[in-house]
Design goal:
Length: 442
């Protein structure tokens, strides 16, 4: 078939096709199990929210809010935004449903598409997918360590190699103003050497100057005073305890005084997990603490800590590292009908029934659904499909099998052939062995 259609997927978004989607399922399985082991419950959040949730929550001096959001006015004249991240929605949901009332805490996770109007490139899309975990209502450093450990454990189970945990503290509203001023003083003294973006951010969001990727600005940022000297007592103690906790759990990490996140809501802990195999888009995971996010969207005081990891990038790294994704799901048994050039239509009917019976017994089975009213195509064409299907076994039903109430079964790897009772096969029994997921009563 020629691809001659003019309508294509919009720039920066992509289809996750079957060759890739089964790898995603493998990753998400491991994620769901790890989340459960760490006590996080899954929730499903809306993909769009009121724009204000992000402009106030993520912060309107951030790149995300300034230039990356997909915002539109709906038919009811409301400003709606496709979520660029999940944390603000998590906090909104927890408050709306009182999940953290009376000092309760909530450990949650979700996954799904996020939307940012960015310049598309490898590992960077306009619709991308994140796994997101949040611990809400927990202010102590143990929660930060749990979150970092949870993200690292997911990657350990997936077999990701060559990762680095990078950690920093970004202070809190008590100590950050002082540090902000120190940064403004530092960078202002070398204003003439800064790039456009940094100049624009200097007064509004000076912390972001620390993570400018341009070498000229980077050198000035390297010389900036580290935040550690400015942290208040509480933030300093919190940071020390997070580091001690990671050490206790045998995690290796690096501190980086230039690590700041692109979202305004972070307080105290900020961290990223970087992959040595991703080139420019090297972050597989980012997160930290956000004790004031809830208040900034009009909620009560609700401390929280969490992370988001990009599924697209995780799969990309795993592919590059040649990681195992388990077995690709596919047909185990291919059922073929030998209808004697149309003289034995019963063979086609029996093949249809056997295929469905095997599926009901929890065995992945495939048949030739045919290209005509009659059903299955010529036997030769079915054999070709069988060998291309990846199935390990072939069941053949023809006139002689039907006369004997039997099925011819062939092991497609070894070539070994058996004749078994059709009755048995219809119950899912055969040389392929029993399936644990079979619901068939014995
Ligand atoms: P980056 O520095 O790569 O832009 P970020 O700091 O914007 O990342 P977060 O907002 O913290 O990232 O999102 C967490 C994770 O989501 C990232 O570490 C990355 O794996 C993934 N991610 C972020 N933006 C994109 C995107 N446009 N396309 C694909 N994955 C993304
Ligand atoms: Mg980004």
């Amino acid at each position: 078939m020629d691809a001659k259609m003019d309508i294509k997927a919009p720039r920066g978004v992509r289809d996750i096709l079957p060759d890739e989607s089964w790898k995603w399922a493998y990753v998400l399985d491991a994620v769901a199990k790890t989340m459960a082991d760490f006590g996080h419950s899954e929730i499903h959040l809306p993909i769009f929210e009121q724009t204000e949730l992000f402009s106030r929550g993520v912060g309107d001096t951030t790149d995300i809010v300034e230039k990356e959001m997909y915002t539109f006015v709906d038919r009811g004249d409301r400003s709606i935004t496709l979520r660029p991240e999940a944390t603000a929605g998590m906090v909104r949901a927890a408050i709306e449903h009182g999940l953290c009332e009376q000092n309760a805490s909530a450990k949650l996770w979700c996954w799904g598409p996020m939307f940012r109007y960015e310049r598309p490139q490898k590992g960077r899309y306009r619709q991308f997918f994140q796994i997101d975990a949040e611990s809400l209502g927990l202010a102590g450093p143990v929660a930060d360590v749990e979150i970092i450990a949870l993200s690292a454990e997911i990657f350990r189970r997936l077999g990701l190699k060559n990762l680095e945990v990078v950690l920093n503290s970004v202070g809190c509203p008590n100590c950050r103003p002082l540090y902000r001023q120190k940064l403004i003083d530092h960078f202002s003294a070398r204003k003439g050497e800064l790039c456009e973006t940094c100049l624009g951010r200097l007064e509004r969001n000076p912390l972001r100057l620390l993570d400018c990727k341009k070498p000229e600005c980077g050198a000035i940022a390297d010389a900036a005073p580290p935040i550690y000297e400015s942290l208040c007592e509480e933030c300093a103690a919190h940071f020390e305890e997070v580091k001690a906790g990671l050490t206790r759990l045998n995690f290796s990490y690096k501190t980086d005084k230039r690590l700041v996140r692109g979202l305004d809501y972070y307080t105290k802990t900020a961290y990223e997990i970087l992959s040595g195999d991703l080139g420019a888009q090297n972050a597989v995971c980012g997160g930290g603490r956000y004790d004031n996010l809830s208040e900034s969207v009009g909620g009560p005081h609700l401390p929280g800590v969490g992370f988001a990891a990009g599924i697209d990038r995780i799969v990309l790294v795993m592919e590059q590292q040649g990681s195992a994704f388990g077995k690709r799901p596919g047909a185990e048994i291919y059922v073929a009908a030998q209808d004697d050039s149309g003289r034995c239509p019963e063979a086609r009917s029996a093949a249809q029934v056997l295929t469905h019976s095997l599926r009901m017994a929890g065995i992945a089975a495939e048949q030739d659904a045919g290209d005509s009213l009659k059903g299955a195509r010529a036997f030769k064409a079915q054999m070709k499909s069988a060998s291309g299907s990846g199935a390990g076994w072939l069941c053949v039903l023809g006139p002689s099998e039907l006369a004997q109430g039997a099925v011819t079964v062939k092991n497609l790897q070894s070539g070994e052939q058996f004749s078994i009772a059709l009755q048995d096969a219809l119950q899912g029994r055969g040389p392929w062995g029993r399936r644990p997921c079979s619901r068939q009563a014995e």
